[in-house]
Amino acid sequence: MLGRSSVIARNFSQSMVRFSGHGGVPGENLPFGLTNKYRITALFTVGCMLGFGAPFLIVRHQLLKK
């Protein structure tokens, strides 16, 4: 059963790439460019910091709230 579902998923993903207008170029469908490696590094760092730090900042805000 698991093998059949993976074959169906693979066939679906291959057909989506084949029939879509994009050529399958890596990074073509991303909302940011991949040409500047320093900008990508900065975006990745900020994203990780926000994603990891947001719960701690929310808890700190709730503890300091009167």
TrEMBL record:
Annotated compartments: Mitochondrion inner membrane
Pathway in which the depicted protein is active: Energy metabolism; oxidative phosphorylation
Keyword Glycoprotein applies: no
Keywords noted in UniProt: Membrane, Mitochondrion, Mitochondrion inner membrane, Transit peptide, Transmembrane, Transmembrane helix
Main location class: mitochondrion
GO (cellular component) term, any one: mitochondrial inner membrane
Protein's recorded name: Cytochrome c oxidase subunit 7C, mitochondrial
Protein family per UniProt: Belongs to the cytochrome c oxidase VIIc family.
Topology of the protein relative to the lipid bilayer: Single-pass membrane protein
Signal peptide (residue range): none
Keyword Membrane: yes
Membrane spanning residue stretches: 40-59
Gene Ontology biological process terms from the UniProt entry: mitochondrial electron transport, cytochrome c to oxygen
CDD domains: Cyt_c_Oxidase_VIIc
